[in-house]
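User: Sequence in, structure out. Go.
Assistant: Echoing your sequence, followed by the structure tokens.
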Amino acid sequence: MSRPITPRRARNGCPVCGAAVTPAFDPFCSQGCRDRDLLQWLGDGYRVPGPPVEDSDQQDT
């Protein structure tokens, strides 16, 4: 299981690892951190909990 991504610390720090930002990968320090952030989005790593959703099949009975 991967380590959760911490919030952005400072404008000059990578939001994933906190290292100095590289202009080519702004706001990240490398392609690796950019890819890790994208995988968090694609894998629901930034999901915010909400109210439970009712199952539509159970409403008909």
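User: And one key feature?
Assistant: The CA atoms of residues 29 and 39 lie 16 Å apart.
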